[in-house]
Amino acid sequence: MAAAHQEPHSSAVRPRSYKDESYLHGFLGTVGDLQKAGVLQDVVLEVEGRRFPCHRLVLSAASPYFRAMFTSDMAESRQKTVVLQGLDAGMFGEILSYVYSGTLHVSLDKVQPLYQAADLLQLDYVRDTCSSYMAMNVERSTCVDLYKFADVFSVHVVQKRCLQWIARNFTEVASSDEFCGLGVNRLTEIISHIELDVKEETAVWEAVVRWVQHSREDRLHHLPSLLHHIRFNLLTSDDMAAILEHPLVREDPGSSEVVRNVVQKGNIDPKPRFGMTTEMAVLLNPTEGSNEILFMNPREDKYISCSYKPEDLPNVTDIAVTNENDIYILDTKELEDEDQLCLFKYNHAENMWEQESVSTISKPSGDESFCHGGRLYEANGILHYIAVIPVGGEPMLQMRKYSPHTNQWQECSQLQLQAICNNVMLFCGPNLYLFKGTEALCYDPDKGVWNRRTPSLKFPKLCIAVAMGTEIFCTDYDLNDLMVYDTESDRWQELNGWPNPGNRQIVELPGVFVLENQLHALLICRGEEEEADRESFVYVYDRSADAWTDLNATLPLYVHEWYGRCQIARMYLPYLEGA
């Protein structure tokens, strides 16, 4: 029998999926046309007496609210006409327009009722869009109204933006009629805010008086609780005497008692208001055993060097400043175990450092060629301690985080490194960024995961980085190469480096910092000759002109003793100068 003929085996053809984008857009357009033509509609929704013929399928696909209504045993699932309560007819018309077209029209006069409708109908996109729109339109004429609306509906992003705007423009807002319409809880939140921009504490007291007198009979009983948020330690003795003699205080025994108790015991929060402080660069003296810290603002010609007792500040390792203007220092103070680190928190009023309780953390140990000194970082009020330690013969990035509110350390994700040289780490917004050679990584603390980002191809020898807004500025030791990384677009841009007039030689690690929303560099330089004396310069980078300018600051001779990494804090100069 002849053998059957076999065709040569061909490679299997893999199935493929195709997506018709024009169909998707056309489908939505067709559905919109059917709605306009009044074709195939199977339900009528009635809102405030207005009738809206619709399609159950379209409504169910767009909204969980309608999906539950039409696919359950509810009576509405069988009715041809459904009456909807708690909705504005005009806003429901806008909602239907979005459902059938995918396009949403938002304006300031209708954003609040539109948000309410979207909240009821569980339309996340509409709700989120309205939230973003409100947050972008916070200004003098809208801040109080939006603040109250955001409070009622728990729109946290808008509430936070309004609170910040009101705090930064407190004097103007406090004089408005809308301010007097705030509830006591919102007023308390405002006058206790860390960023309240007032030059004198009497402005806060006067705002409270105005609010109480707006409806005296209903509000006088709130005065004692509000007085707890007045920082009497920032008032003069004459101001204190005037408050004690004020009719509101004299008529209310509770208020008078509160004032006297606060005067005797001091305030719960002695930190000054935002408007009373000056932005200062806080620099550590790198000399071993030094107990000195320099606070400086070259733009205002302010330089204050403070020395602290060795037992209070024995060996500073690093420094971090939180968004609430709390300053923490990482210290190698010896406790039960000499290989432990601990945190010290700065007391603004006393100009001293106080050890935080239960805040120790073990230092990395092992092969010194792998160990990379631990650093302290801050993000969203949480401190992060990061070090490179040896694990299985390979360098590993170790991270722990500390919550000041719980006073607890917690282990975080680890990352194996190919090398430990030329690593730059810093937080920008909520995320940690790591640039190492030709690799860029981003760590999300909430999810505990690392993601790869676009690396810089310009130069691998990064050594300094600082965040400003959503951007990260990176440079090398000599400030010759300057790059900026946009965390939102994941893109790099090359900028002009320091021009180095006079052919100076940078002899110490530059102190690069953001002061008053501008990039600054403190440079310790020497002339071409080896015997030349050291000189200190402060340069400011102008982003719009892409150029560095000498601030021509008159720096004290001792400034060259401080260099390297520094942090920005808002300092109350009377506290510093009086210490």
- Specify Rg, calculated over alpha carbons: 31 Å
If you consult CATH, what is the topology of the largest domain? Neuraminidase
Number of domains: 3
- End-to-end separation in angstroms reads 111 Å
The number of distinct helices, counting runs of at least 4 residues, comes to 17
**Averaged pLDDT:** 83
Protein structure class: alpha+beta
Percent in strands: 25-35%
What is the 3D shape?
globular
CATH superfamily of the largest domain: Kelch-type beta propeller
Number of strands: 29
Low-confidence stretches: 367-372
Top CATH class of the largest domain: Mainly Beta
Helical proportion, percent range: 25-40%
Q: Tell me about the biggest sheet?
A: 5 strands, antiparallel
CATH-derived architecture of the largest domain = 6 Propeller
Summarize this, please?
This protein is an alpha+beta fold and 579 residues long. 27% of the residues lie in helices and 30% in strands. It starts with 20 loop residues before the first helix and ends with a helix.
Secondary-structure blueprint:
Blueprint: H1 21-37, E1 43-47, E2 50-54, H2 56-62, H3 64-70, E3 81-83, H4 89-101, H5 111-121, H6 124-136, H7 143-152, H8 156-168, H9 170-174, H10 184-191, H11 202-214, H12 216-219, H13 223-227, H14 237-244, H15 247-251, H16 253-265, E4 278-284, E5 292-297, E6 302-307, E7 316-321, E8 327-331, E9 340-347, E10 352-362, E11 372-379, E12 382-391, E13 394-403, E14 408-411, E15 415-416, E16 423-428, E17 431-436, E18 439-444, E19 449-453, E20 464-468, E21 471-475, E22 482-486, E23 491-495, E24 505-506, E25 511-515, E26 518-526, E27 534-542, E28 547-550, E29 566-571, H17 573-577
Helix pairs in contact: 2-3, 4-5, 5-6, 6-8, 7-8
